[in-house]
Structure formats: C-alpha cells, structure tokens
C-alpha cells in the first residue's frame, strides 16, 4: 500500500489550549473508528451522513480506513490515543474533491474542524486538488461557519434541501490571516492554562532539604499560591507539613499543573499518569534529556510525544520553571525562592542556570515582572509561544527574552514583528552570530556577522542588546517611561564634565543632543525643577537626561521628588545618573497600592553612557514603530510554475559542489548543495523577471573572438572565479573591447595572468555604472536572507554589506541599499557623467532586490544565489554574473503551511 508523506503528521494546539495529534488514517484504525462512531450522537451522525446511521458495517470501516493517499485521503485527530475527529476528501475530478468532517460531540467547539480543514487542504493541494466541494445540511450551522470563516474564496448554492459550498484552495491573504489569528488564540490559551492553574501537584516532592523536589514545593507554598498544592511522594504521608499522595492518580481533586522533579528515566511514566489524571500542563525541572546526548534526546522526544498526545503542553525539561505575579494566582513554580514583585515585564529565558540570577537582578533594580518562563531545553513551549500570549496580556507591557537559539526562525521574526508593533521586545542572543558545524564552517545559506544579526532583529522590531545588563537598562525605560517622539535630547545637570560625556555619547550613537544646561554644583531642587519644566515644554526636545551628583549639602531627596513628580506628568522619557545608582532607586519610584513600581518611575544609570544607550534603544524602537511598513509590490511577470520546472530540471543535471568560497571576507561551505549551470541559473532568474547577461566560456583566443561576434560589441573578457576581486583587484577584467584584435589581446593577457587558475568567459559589455553585489539564501538562524554591498575590493575587505529578511517590502529594499556605508556612490553622478540623466537607477536596483527576495522565499530548494556583479547605471540594474546552488527541499518548511507545533520524531 502507498505510504503517506511524513509531514502530514503533526501536533496541533486547539482553541482551548489543549493539544491533539493529527495523522493520516490507516487500516489499523478500524477499531478506533468503530468506537468513535459509536460515541457520536444521532444528530451528529445525521449531519454527517444525511440519514440515521447508528452502526458502521465492516464494509464501511474497510472503505473509510483504506485510502490511497492520492485520490482519497483521510486525516484523524487523536487525544490520548482516542480518535476524536475525522476529515476526508475524495477526488471527483482531476482538480476537484468532495470533503467531509465529523467531530465527536464532546470535542466540538475546540477548533478541531478548522485545523483539520487547513491540513486536509494542504494535503489536497500537494495532490493537485484546487477546489473542495462540501454538501452541508442548512441546520448544520457550525460546519457551514467552519467553511465560510476559513478565508478561502467560496461559492454557495442550494439544491434539494442541501447547501453546496465550493472552496478555492489557493491560499489568500484572508485565509492566511485567519490561520495566523487562530494560531495566536490557541497558543496564547495554551500558555494561559500553564500560568493560571487552579491547582498544582509537585511530583517528586522530597522530605530531604535542598533537593529539587522539596525546593519546588517550598517555593510554591512560600509564594502564597492561591490554590491547593499536592505533594506526590511514593511513601510519605506528608512533605513539609502538607499531606502527600503516592501518585498523581491518588489525588482526589482536579490537578491543572504538575511540577515534575523525578529521575529522567521515570518521567515518561509520570507523564502517562498525568495524562490519565487529566492534567493540563507539565513543568519538567528534571535534567538528563537532550542536554546529555542522543539517548537523552530520544527520551525527551518521547516525553513530548506522550504529553502532546494527551493534550498537555510541556515547559522544559531541565528548566527553572514558571512564575505569575498576578495576585489572583501568585504562582511561583520555579526553583528560585525570591521573585521580583508584580510589574509590567514578561521574561522568557532558555537558560535555567541563568534564570535565578536574572530574577535576582530584576528585583535588585526595583523592577517587577508580570510573568516569567524558563524553558530549559525548550522541547515544547518556546519563546514563540510566550510571544503569542504576551501579545494580548494586559499585564505585560515589555517583553524580555534571553535566547540561545531560534527553534523556528521564520515564526520568530513573524511573531516578533507583530508583537513589537504593540510592545517593546528586547532580546539577548548568545552563542555567536552564525550556527557552525563541528568543522567550523557555517551551516546553511549565509554565515552572518554579528552586526547582521542585530540588523535583522531591528528589521523585525526586536531591540537586540549585548548582555543582560544592557537588557535591564533598556527595560527600565520601556517599562516605566514613555517613548521619545524623536532624536533630540535635552541634557540637564550639576556637573559640566558629566554633561559633556552625555553629549558626546549621544552624538556617537546618532542622537541629536542640545547643548547641556549646566546648573552648577550648588544647584537646588528648584533649579532642577525649572530646567526640567523648560525642557519638557520645548517642542524640539524629545527625551531628557538628568545628571545629578552630590553637592556639598544633601539635596538628593528633593531632586528625586522633582524628577519623580515631573516624570508622572510628562509624555517625554526622563532618565538620570542619580548618585551613580543603578536601577530604579526607591526615591525615584512611583509606587502602586501593592507596593509595585509603576509607570512614571525614573530609571537611574551608573554612568552617562549607560543612560544614553538606553535612550538610544527607546528612540530607535519608537522610530521603527512609527515608520511606514512598506508594501509588497505586485510583480505580474513572475512565473512560479516555470520556476518550479526549471528547478526540477536543474537538480537532475547538477553535481555536488564541495568548495570553500571566500566572499565578503568570510568563508562559506557548500556541502549539502549543488551548483547548477550558468544557463539554468539565468533561466531560473528569468522566471522572476530578472534578466542576467549571458556569457560564453572560451578556451582559446579564437573562441573568444567568435563568442564576441555572437554576443556583440563592445565586449568584455574576464576571469570567472568567486574570489578574484579580493585576490586580484580589478585586474581580472578587460572591458570596452571593440574589435576582434582587442578581444584576442585581452584573452591572451588574462590567460598569461591566471593560467589555469580560472575559467575565461566573454560577455557583452554594459554601459558604465556602479558595480554592486546581491546575495541571498537560507540562513540556519533566520530563514531567507538578502545581502547587498558594493562590488569593490575596499567594500569587501571592510565588510561593508547590509542584510534584510526576505521577502522584502519596498521600504526594506530602500533601507537595505542605504544601510551600506558606500551607498552615497549610488546617489551621485558616476565618474565621467555630465548630467542627472546619467545617475544610477536606484529604483531598478530596489526592484531587483525585491525580486530576488521573492525567489528565495518561494523556493526552499534555493540554498544560495550570488549575483556578482550587478552594474547599476542610468538604464537599470544589470546582472552580469549569476551563480546559484540548489538542494533537495525539506519535506515541510518551518512556518509554512497549516498550523503545527514544532516537530518531534513520530
């Protein structure tokens, strides 16, 4: 029997936050299907079959469970091994199929039908189906709404008492938005179930002091959790004075959340007991999983599979835990005894080891947290899930993330961009800028320098900082001060030397500081008040840095009251170096009725440079949030079908290319990709409206003359090797060849210069312009990335290039060009030009960048594209060199297709 693709199997989150497992049906599901049908109500059966159908015959069961995964496909959803929903399609024409659902009564309203429609629709498109037909009884309003609200283009007819819906399965902007909105609600709800439990069990609670199990239990109790806490111990009657139970199954009441602190080899047994108990979520603080090697990774995958199959999400393993400061829950399910007070900051950390130190630092700075999650190995719940939750959480105004890797980079950038439009996202990413193989070569399409990582984060709206100290510096402004409306900075203080340090730091960081207002060492609180009020009233002041050092007589408290008072009524951020103290000192806090630090508190920094850096982060973020998002221009001459065929043809002809290539001063290894021929590369670019100049490889001077005659004069003869510009400067090209003798002489000169070191090719010459380089490909950490720089030795040696995430908007393309330091060369007159009519056509270059970004985003088979050079002159952007590497496409591309949780091995 034909097998089904592996990516048709997936774990999904339902609208109530639970999980289910989706997979194609098999003949082994016969008994499950009978049991499922027997649990359906007569009404549900009637809606599905349009007649009473109390029992499935053996013939029915065989027909329903035996499919060919081509013309007949059926998917089932299971929870704890029980079948709860079925969707199927049967082809009735080459591009048309009938589709039908049935969801068990007890699981209706949980979003199963919607998510199954996404998955069956994706499977159908892979099999060439373009339209679904669904016959629905008029009274089956719930199922009609599933189809209508899917976002697909739909038509409806009514005949003989049945509504026929026809759905065009081509994804639309509406269908994608519907899918993303449902994903956001479901994943947000799954996190809320973890953060707002009504009861918690600690499995592995120990009577021995300072063990993980007892620590977790004591912290729950000491944090004044508002619900019951149940220790689980196989023998003890009580742990730390609280009644204990032999297993979670012996607890008489509902358990919402379980903290698991047992040996790694017994965790899966505990998870199965939690599944039988109906627990909603797990926090696995135990270690001994993916961090210890392949055996631990296998154990970790089994843990996640078991939990998700039973409808549970997992935080961890090897994690510090989670906390929620909301007074209605007061949850401290962490291994840290002391949590910061309630506040507006949501914090996600991958590192459990750093988690406790992070919590201590937050408290020391006088800040507060809304929620805290340390995900450890991040086997299931990740920072992406938390971003979904924080987007709509009214208690969270700022999001902090300590990241060691990005499990799904495409989803991260999509979610971060959406969240950052509402709330600041500050991230520390450790572990270097490029993922590396054990041999030290960059794995994936583009090995990115550190500044590129920062620019890609900025494009997504994420404020990237270098370390945790800078993270908290930025968080203080974002959490407790308004955003600046512009880059103009007012400087007020009683120390002229420190004020000059502020001004110098602001200039270096790209701000526009006013001349400092020096109040002198004897300044009083009233003097500070007058100066601050004047700055707040000035339209050309967008933020204020106040420098205060102790005077001969103590007026610190009076100045603090002035700062706090003016901050409360200001719509401009105020920061200070107050007595060189860090954080939000008590004197500068605006305190709420629960003792928490509130908006209007004034951040203090130990040095002027730290204060300015925090203002810079706030200013750049505000500018990003206020900028126009740009648009994705219509490109009607794109032929995706021809591109797909070209890729298939090129892959069949290509041979593996094992080579180290120096580019932009770095190395890139093509060890899983294949170089395709220049002709195939040009054909593929042409499918996306990109015309690359043809060239002809030649092995003799006479062949060069013939090639020049075919291509036309003036001609170019050049040595073709990827790193010759750096190694040979401009000596590898002979241009403006207008006669056969010119071509012959140029060929002989280059042959003598390079010998057999590089191939020689002939090409028709383009009009003079500014040579640039456009590169794009798949980066392991970020997905599809486009880079741009000028094609000269200086630019490459200085690493003057810029990066953006694909696909590019028109604004992204313009920003990418302006981001390189040599960009002014593209906006003036080139050497020898006499009028503005000869100025480089930058608009054509922007369109080229957009087209390249669409190409690499559309086809994961494209590992790397190198357009070098791209000559930009008055007539356009001309691709004079094109190299391309392809690879076998992954079965399923991250963050593409229907909703799914990050995969484990099924």
From TrEMBL:
Residue span, N-acetyltransferase domain: 20-170
Domain of life: Bacteria
Classification via Pfam families: Acetyltransf_1, ATP-grasp_5, CoA_binding_2, Succ_CoA_lig
Domain ATP-grasp: 682-719
UniProt KW keywords: ATP-binding, Ligase, Nucleotide-binding
Keyword Ligase set for record: yes
Keyword Ligase recorded: yes
Gene Ontology MF terms in the entry: ligase activity
InterPro entries, A to Z: Acyl_CoA_acyltransferase, ATP-grasp, ATP_grasp_subdomain_1, CoA-bd, GNAT_dom, NAD(P)-bd_dom_sf, Succ_CoA_lig_flav_dom, Succinyl-CoA_synth-like
The protein's name in its UniProt record: Bifunctional GNAT family N-acetyltransferase/acetate--CoA ligase family protein
Species this chain originates from: Nocardiopsis exhalans
Lineage: Bacteria, Bacillati, Actinomycetota, Actinomycetes, Streptosporangiales
């Amino acid at each position: 029997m034909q097998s089904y693709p592996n990516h048709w199997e997936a774990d999904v989150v339902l609208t109530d936050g639970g999980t289910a497992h989706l997979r194609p049906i098999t003949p082994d599901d016969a008994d499950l299907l009978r049991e499922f049908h027997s649990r359906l109500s007569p009404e549900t059966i009637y809606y599905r079959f349009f007649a009473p159908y109390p029992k499935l015959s053996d013939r029915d069961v065989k027909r329903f469970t035996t499919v060919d995964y081509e013309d007949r496909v059926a998917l089932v959803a299971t929870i704890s091994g029980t079948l709860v929903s079925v969707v199927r399609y049967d082809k009735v024409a080459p591009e048309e199929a009938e589709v039908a659902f049935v969801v068990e009564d007890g699981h209706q309203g949980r979003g199963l039908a919607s998510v199954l429609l996404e998955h069956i629709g994706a499977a159908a498109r892979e099999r060439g189906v373009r339209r679904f037909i669904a016959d629905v009884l008029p009274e089956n309003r719930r199922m009609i709404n599933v189809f209508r609200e899917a976002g697909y283009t739909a038509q409806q007819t009514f005949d003989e008492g049945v509504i026929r819906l026809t759905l065009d399965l081509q994804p639309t902007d509406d269908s994608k938005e519907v899918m993303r909105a449902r994903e956001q609600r479901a994943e947000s709800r799954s996190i809320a179930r973890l953060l707002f439990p009504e009861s918690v069990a600690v499995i592995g609670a120990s009577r021995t002091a300072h063990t993980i199990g007892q620590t977790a239990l004591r912290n729950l109790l000491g944090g004044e959790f508002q619900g019951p806490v149940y220790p689980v111990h196989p023998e003890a009657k009580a742990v730390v004075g609280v009644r204990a139970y032999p297993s979670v199954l012996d607890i008489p009441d509902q358990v919402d959340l379980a903290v698991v602190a047992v040996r790694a080899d017994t965790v899966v047994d505990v998870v199965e007991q939690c599944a039988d108990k109906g627990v909603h979520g797990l926090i696995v603080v135990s270690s001994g999983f993916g961090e210890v090697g392949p055996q631990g990774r296998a154990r970790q995958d089994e843990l996640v599979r078991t939990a998700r199959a039973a409808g549970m999400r997992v935080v961890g393993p090897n994690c510090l835990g989670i906390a929620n400061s909301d007074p209605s829950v007061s949850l401290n399910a962490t291994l840290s005894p002391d949590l910061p007070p309630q506040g507006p900051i949501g914090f996600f950390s991958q590192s459990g080891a750093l988690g406790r130190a992070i919590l201590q630092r937050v408290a020391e700075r006088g800040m507060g947290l809304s929620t805290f999650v340390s995900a450890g190995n991040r086997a299931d719940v990740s920072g992406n899930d938390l971003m979904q939750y924080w987007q709509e959480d009214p208690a969270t105004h700022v999001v902090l993330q300590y990241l060691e890797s990005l499990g799904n980079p495409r989803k991260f950038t999509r979610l971060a961009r959406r969240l950052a439009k509402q709330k600041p996202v500050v991230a520390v990413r450790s572990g270097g800028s490029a993922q590396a193989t054990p041999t030290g070569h960059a794995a994936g399409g583009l090995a990115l320098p550190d500044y590129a990582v920062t620019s890609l984060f900025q494009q997504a709206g994420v404020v990237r900082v270098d370390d945790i100290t800078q993270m908290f510096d930025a968080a203080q402004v974002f959490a407790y001060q308004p955003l600046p409306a512009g880059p103009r900075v007012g400087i007020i203080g009683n120390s002229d030397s420190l004020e000059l340090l502020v001004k110098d730091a602001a200039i270096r960081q790209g701000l526009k500081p006013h001349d400092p207002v020096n109040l002198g060492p004897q300044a009083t609180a009233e003097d500070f008040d007058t100066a601050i009020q004047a700055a707040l009233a000035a339209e050309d002041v967008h933020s204020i840095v106040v420098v205060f050092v102790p005077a001969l007589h103590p007026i610190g408290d009076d100045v603090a009251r002035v700062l706090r008072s003016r901050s409360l009524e200001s719509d401009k951020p105020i920061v200070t170096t107050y007595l060189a103290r860090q954080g939000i000192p008590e004197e500068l806090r605006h305190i709420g009725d629960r003792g928490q630090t509130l908006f209007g508190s004034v951040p203090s920094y130990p040095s002027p440079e730290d204060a300015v850096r925090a203002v810079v982060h706030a200013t750049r973020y505000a500018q990003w949030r206020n900028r126009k998002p740009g648009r994705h221009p219509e490109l009607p001459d794109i032929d995706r079908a021809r591109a797909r065929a070209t890729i298939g043809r090129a892959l069949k002809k290509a041979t593996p290319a094992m080579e180290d290539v120096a580019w932009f001063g770095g190395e890139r290894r093509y060890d899983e990709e294949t170089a395709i021929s220049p002709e195939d590369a040009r054909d593929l670019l042409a499918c996306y409206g990109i015309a690359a100049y043809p060239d002809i490889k030649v092995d003799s001077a006479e062949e060069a003359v013939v090639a020049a005659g075919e291509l036309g004069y003036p001609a170019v003869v050049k040595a073709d090797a990827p790193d010759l510009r750096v190694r040979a400067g401009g000596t590898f090209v002979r241009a403006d060849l207008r006669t056969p003798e010119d071509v012959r002489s140029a060929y002989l000169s280059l042959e003598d210069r390079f010998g057999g070191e590089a191939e020689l090719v002939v090409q028709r010459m383009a009009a003079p312009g500014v040579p640039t380089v456009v590169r794009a490909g798949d980066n392991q950490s970020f997905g599809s990335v486009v880079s741009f720089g000028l094609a000269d030795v200086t630019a490459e040696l200085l690493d003057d290039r810029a990066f953006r995430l694909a696909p590019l908007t028109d604004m992204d393309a313009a920003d990418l060009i302006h981001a390189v330091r040599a960009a002014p060369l593209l906006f003036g007159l080139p050497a020898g030009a006499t009028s503005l009519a000869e100025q480089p056509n930058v608009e054509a270059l922007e369109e080229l960048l957009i087209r390249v970004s669409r190409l690499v985003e559309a086809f994961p088979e494209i590992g790397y594209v190198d357009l070098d050079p791209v000559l930009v002159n008055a007539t356009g952007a001309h691709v004079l060199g094109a190299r391309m590497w392809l690879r076998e496409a992954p079965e399923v591309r991250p963050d593409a297709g229907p909703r799914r949780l990050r995969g484990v091995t099924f």
